[in-house]
Amino acid sequence: MRTESPRWYGRVPGKADPVPLSENRRAAEDILNNELGRAARQEHGLPDRHGSRQPLAAYLDEWEQVLPTRDERPKAKHVRSLARCVGRVLDGCGFESPADLDAGAVRKLLADLRASRSSVELPADRTEFRKAELAKLLGVTASTMPFLVARHKLPATGQGKARRYPRATAEALAASRGRGAGEKTSNMYFAAVKQFVRWLADEQRVPLARAASDLLRIGAGKADMDPRHARTTPLTADEFARLIVATKASRDVLCGLTGEVRALVYRLAVETGYRAAELSQLRPSSFVVTGELVEAVLPASATKNGQEARQPLGPSAGLVVSYLGQLPVSLPIIPGDWWKDAAEMIRRDQTAAGIPYVVEGPTGRTYRDFHNLRHTMVAFLDAAGASLKEAMQLARHSRPELTAKVY
Predict the structure, then answer these.
(1) DSSP character string of 330-380
(2) What is the model's pLDDT at position 46?
(3) Spatial distance between the Cα atoms of 108 and 133, rounded to a whole number of angstroms
(4) pLDDT of 245 over the 90 cut
(5) Taking the CA atoms of the chain, what radius of gyration do you get in angstroms?
(6) To the nearest 10°, the Cα dihedral for 223, 224, 226, 231?
(7) Is the pLDDT of residue 208 over 50?
């Protein structure tokens, strides 16, 4: 006499008999999918991920390798940022294996990251700090210091053991630590971890426990309700003119660029809206001259949104055409890695021009870093009578709400 089994079974290639799974249908389906994935890997000679019990650090290394980069700097930078975010969450939560993944622990870690901290008191008689001692005062590891300084575009001097952080940098980091991270930063960590966990599940590398599956259902917070590094104070026409004049007259070489070249960079940034990494991709062949119209063209592989961009130049068109005649055709018109420190570069040039880098506004502080030149571009378009749609298209935004809201 046949009786109905309380357990679900499934057929797996390579096994003659049905494989016992689970009494719960949903769990049985998950187990069967894992078994089928394992069988497929064995059929193609790939290692058995389940049996090897790889640590999460190994999975993270593999994930970073398979993320699309196209070998362009904006894409590679994004990949590194995602991997760093996931790595910090794994380390902060103490996750070592896939079985350790837990949505509650991630929520708590990021809540602690957003929470305000007690103020950091710096020794009154110190004008500069070593990396280890400043890290101890801030309550972070010494290895985190370079990231914090780069994140907030703060100055430092010397290299290696001679690296020193001036008091202004220490005070800025202390103030930042006291405020905690914003919702935008928290959302960035959430998104990176969810992408990593989804990759684990979709590739059938590991079966996800309920606590790990909950990570995929975590919603993002409202970043605009809690900004930390707002950039919504564009330069006025007078300020921008002063910046160009002061930069051209500067004898300092910043980020490997002379004053005249930096002035050209700022002009191109405002006239095209290209970001620093995008500007670094421009070559003489990127400029198309049609009569009096000069366009700066970037292929899809060189832009942040992955779409070809054609931006018309304004008053700098003649200057650019003259400048291009002095350059090799195959090399970038602005060589070097200047784009990595563009925020510090423009901060110093703005200071020399008497233009404040930090502006106190009704909603708090705003920062005039290099990205603020995009805001300046849209502000100039608005002053010239451009419509919202025209500004959105020139700023290369996907929605008019973003142009109107952010800028």
Answers:
(1) TS-SS-SSGGGGHHHHHHHHHHHTT--SEEEETTEEEE--TTHHHHHHHHH
(2) 53
(3) 28
(4) yes
(5) 26
(6) 110
(7) yes
